[in-house]
Protein: Methyltransferase domain-containing protein
Amino acid sequence: MFTPGEFDRWAENYDSEVERGQGLPFEGYAGVLERVFQRAGVRPGLSVLDLGCGTGNLTARFVQAGCRVWGSDFSAEMLKIARRKVPGARFFQHQLGNPLPADVPQHYARMVSAYVFHHFDQAGKIALLTHLRNHLEPGGWIVIGDIAFPNAEARQQAKQAAADAWDEEPYWLVEDDLPALRAAGFQAAFEPVSFCAGVFLIQPEMA
Structure:
């Protein structure tokens, strides 16, 4: 698991690295963010929380669409850049899994995230989503763009191809994680965008 300090040190170079969008882990980065935005089904005035917003690349899309947007991240340096780039959003420092600060809205029509959840193992992903669904407005949903592989074989092939560039993270395995999400009470679907990334659409099952 990465620490805030590591992301603080990465902040100044983050955008230049992800925007290249080549190879692991950011192949198709721009396409992933665009698809998250599309699957969120936005309209002006919609309340959106961007989880692990980093430098605000995903946040900006929702602000430009006229949404009311809050962005959270655990890195102070990432947030400094996000505030400079996206002055129309409201940003706050926050560790995923902890209670939301009392001075921000407690419910949102959409929660979105890009390249964050792969730092958590499957149990951690489920626990985090179970916590977050308590902060969704009725009828709301969660859209996650992230590093993901269809199965363990595809993950192993990517690992071998990446060689020394591979980071040993609990990346999503779609064939395992979709059933786990459904067993935890979510409607869940996945759309691939590149060989190593795609978009999850997650919504609580109706009672």
